Amino acid sequence: MSGAEAVLVIGLIGSLISVIDGAKKIYDAAGDAKGQPEEFRQVAARLPLVIEILRNAEARASKLDETKLEAIKQTLESCKAKAEELEKIFQKIIRKDDHRWFHRYKKALRILGKGDKVECLMEGIHKDTQLLVSEKLMGTATEAQVKDDSENRICLQHLRTTDPREDKKRIEDTKGGILKDSYTWILENSEFRQWHDNSKQSQLLWIRGDPGKGKTMLLCGIIDKLEETATTASASGCCLLSYFFCQATDLRINSATAVLRGLIYLLTDQQPELLQHVRKKYDATGKELFVDTNAWFALSEIFMNILQDPRLERTYVIIDALDECVTGLQQLLQFIDETLPVCPRVKWIISSRNWPSIEEQLRISDQKVQLRLELNQDSISAAVSTYIEYKVGELAKRKKYTAKLEKSVREYLSLNADATFLWVALVLKELETIERRIALERVKMFPPGLGPLYEQMIAQVSESNNADLCKRILSIVAVVRRPITLEELVSLDDTLHKLDCPEDLSEDIEDLEQTVGQCGSFLTIRESTVYFVHQSAKDFLLQENTSQEIFRSGIDEINHTIFSRSLQLMSRALRRDVYRLRAPGITIDQVKQPDPDPLAAVRYSCLYWIDHLLECQTREDTIKDLKDSGPVYSFLRQYFLHWLEALSLLKSVSEGVIMIRKLEDLQFDESPDVHAFIHDARRFTVSNRSIIEQAPLQAYCSALVFAPEKSIVRKTFEGCIPSWIQRKPRVETHWNAMLQILEGHTVGVTSVAFSPDGKQIVSGSWDTTVRRWDAATGAPLLPALEGHTSRVTSVAFSPDGKQIVSGSWDTTVRRWDAATGAPLLPALEGHTSRVTSVAFSPDGKQIVSGSWDTTVRRWDAATGAPLLPALKGHTSGVTSVAFSPDGKHFPTLHVSGYWLDIRQGDYQFLSFNKGQSLST
């Protein structure tokens, strides 16, 4: 080996480490810049692993022969060039005290947007380090580490539904930025200090107040302050911060499941080793873990495990606007309550309106502190006054107010604000559009209080030149299931093109943006997406008195418009291979979204057209739409497979299965053809959900080829089967009784049962596990229930569906939480031979089990305690047990040789209450 070659390679590695370490330090230095792009954060998080690999390589390079040194030299040089370019990009996002910083920051974002440059550079570096691994510089342990890093990134991508850091930045920007002096009062508030300083006794702070009191911005300020603490403590790695902002108008962030996904995402992004708790379940099922019907239960167990992880030091968890958690609020509150006694290192802050239901669930105790904003009127009023002082000063500069006018406006706002930030913000937004000469006259026309102000705003909309157009926009934004983009908004209603507005409105987004700005300050626009300025604004529009003004023909009419328009949009945009993937084997993880995205304008329509149809199903025109001659059947016959492909590209096939099932549940008494098609479409989708999810173009290949010959979907779209598939497999003529094969057990299945509500299936197997399944989609519900050490022979649900019981050859009976899959201890022990059958009593209070030890045993279903005596009388193994409908008797069956021995006429009955055999 040449010593010079070794020195050269070691020098290259050392130089590369310096460059990458420098890039990481540059990024860390930019930490004060709010809202760094997610791609920047993901890249920066992966740099330490690259450095670790290179340092390992540096230590081993001197032992390599000259051939290997030469082979890796070019790889190192290539890697260094990419790292230097990455360093330059990071350099541009450091905040500096000069007027050019924001220009450099925006330029860096443009670089990111053109070809995902930062991500591409990191991918190149990643591949180079993988090549070093393949050259055996690191050994098998590091190779596995590199692979694990890649799998972790995919897991995080599937976990992420939103990045709360981006939501925080959006909220702050939408509200005009955060003013430090408007929130610092709380840092000295006695309730806040009690929560912050009392490490064990006060774990939860509930900040509560009426709409518009500034709760969200208050929490943004608290987060900033705690982030300073976390940054100071980060050197010792002893402080983490995770937060989430609920928003009722956005389906992505208005559920308890979304809250947990966001909180877990932030924690695992900061402390990657915590991701192992997610991976334990994720590796077995993939992204279904986060979206199936039991996602809440799996995620709550994962989050509890993370919060109890001994490696987790002090952690702050903050949730804003709990009253806007539309789905699963009670579950979320219960979960928070359950964490307090078992997670002493975790402190919570939550905020909400003054809802009695939230107060009742929280059951305020010593561990919980309330901060009522209405009881801190002086502090809030002072903060609002500071806000008014600053914002009016800014307005006066822009509008060139005189000192006298500025003072008069400030005084009016201060006298009428009633300690309500939102009222001030709305008035100031209106003043932005008013000429200076009439500003004082107009400001005095704004009435005190949010309700009266909203009423005046809607009256102004009604009197405006664009009244009809503005009301139409408000009605659509109020009804949609999530905030929509300007492109989606203009697409969803034909009337946006026909009223007194520019003819090219659909093509000129700037004109539409101006029109949205005329909607009485109810709406705001952020990154081309339309939002309500506050949840109370949407609530106001939907209340009965106002809705008659906005929804002239009723909310049903708006839902029907969105549904009908969605069919038209999808019919225009959807086509086979819409992303031009070409190869049917390309998986969803390999798909790159094209620019421009042909699905951009129809994303909303693809996901929610059926929901809007269901909301207006009793309308006469909707009934016509559902007939055999109507547009629904026409759309499905032409575009059903294209729609499935689009759902796959949108990673929403499971949601599609549920949508089709909802559609099938409608009444089609006079529409046999459309009903038959929808029924066949459900069978087709359920059977092929997994493969279409994995590879979008398989909707036209294996899904069609393996469908029954007489399948309506197959016959309708048979022309879509690729011509290169010349020899088609033999398949059944019709769909058989089998809806779907549920695969997961590794050995024979011995017992299955439906939950009482029909939403779950449970199965027991000789592989010693019990498994649960989503009955609608067939997706496995994790985790698998593990605990038995021998074959599972019998499973059953409790009458209320909350428990599962299983019996096994290991002589035990076990209980499980049907929602989470958690074992309910203790195991029920008492049999001396194999358990063959288990059952719940009709009232769910008792469990009965039969065994080869010839006995029948009863157990308390709540505690697992045995109920004596054991029921004896059989002379051979008991093979089956069951309860009578009134719960007073149960028949038992045993095998004697090859004969069935059945007593009491045909059966032997055992008294349920006394455990005695009843005479014949």
SSE blueprint:
Layout: H1 3-29, H2 38-60, H3 66-91, H4 101-113, H5 117-134, H6 140-159, H7 164-174, H8 190-197, E1 204-208, H9 215-233, E2 239-245, H10 256-270, H11 276-285, H12 288-291, H13 295-307, E3 314-320, H14 329-339, E4 346-352, H15 356-362, E5 368-372, H16 377-399, H17 403-416, H18 421-431, H19 439-443, H20 450-463, H21 467-479, E6 484-485, H22 486-491, H23 495-498, H24 509-517, E7 523-526, E8 529-532, H25 535-542, H26 544-550, H27 555-573, H28 603-615, H29 620-625, H30 631-649, H31 653-664, H32 672-694, H33 702-705, H34 712-717, E9 749-754, E10 760-765, E11 770-774, E12 780-785, E13 792-797, E14 803-808, E15 812-817, E16 823-829, E17 835-840, E18 846-851, E19 856-860, E20 866-871, E21 878-881, E22 889-896, E23 899-901, E24 908-911
Parallel strand pairs: 1-4, 1-5, 2-3, 3-4
Antiparallel strand pairs: 6-8, 7-8, 9-10, 10-11, 11-12, 13-14, 14-15, 15-16, 17-18, 18-19, 19-20, 21-22, 22-23, 22-24
Helix pairs in contact: 1-2, 1-3, 2-5, 2-6, 3-5, 5-6, 10-13, 16-17, 16-18, 27-28, 27-30, 28-31, 30-32, 31-32
Structure in words:
It is a single chain. By secondary structure, the chain is of the alpha+beta class. The chain has 5 domains: 3-159, Up-down Bundle (I/LWEQ domain), CATH 1.20.1410; 164-375, 3-Layer(aba) Sandwich (Rossmann fold), CATH 3.40.50; 379-463, no CATH class; 467-720, no CATH class; 749-911, 7 Propeller (Methylamine Dehydrogenase, Chain H). The strands form 6 sheets. The protein has a 5-stranded parallel β-sheet with strand order 2-3-4-1-5. Strands 9-10-11-12 form a 4-stranded antiparallel β-sheet. It is globular and about 100 Å long.
